Amino acid sequence: MNQHSTHHNASLRETLKQKRQSLDAQYLSQGALRIRARLYTWLSTQLAQMPAERAEEKLNLAAFWSLPAEPELQPLLNKWGSESPAQFSLCLPCIEQSDAPLVFRPWTLETPMKKGAHNIPEPDSTEQAVKPDIILVPTLGYTRQGDRIGYGKGYYDRTLAALKAQYHPFVTIGIAWSCGDLSAFDYQPQAHDVPLDAILTEQGWAKAAPQL
Length: 212
Fold this sequence. Notes:
alpha/beta, Rossmann fold, seven-stranded mixed β-sheet, two-stranded antiparallel sheet, 5 helices, 32% helix
């Protein structure tokens, strides 16, 4: 990545964070509710349509523990956790090394949590890490083609690239606020960027819902 694009992306990140901060609390609450409802419906529909031979394989869904400025996913995790669905298991990302891919550890309502890197809660467990089949990706900025701007630390870039290198099939869904739409900005993705399969915002699917 050249210095110009690094600087450009850093200032773009600041602009997007400011736009996000200007959203009022009620809008954030209602918007997050709509995102959770669409996610819940999407997954239920996908699982219901699965052929019997695939339905027996338990999918691993990697969510994330939302920070205050992000669409709140925790109520949906609690709902999924309390229903303990037979067809999928939940896991959450853990930062075990700052320059390495994320590690996904199983999560249930009983899983103890600890503050990990950057004060983000993560499972406090030594349970074996899993490879996710569906990955919900926190997304600050996005294009309608699925390009993503994150927070600049590169965790998800490294993680998605590592899973691809292991030939592990997975589906990615960016979770974003609609104010992160980059259509009005001069944004060019980098050659190494891995586009997301879908983007979901409070206004609906900015990039169409994926098929499992």
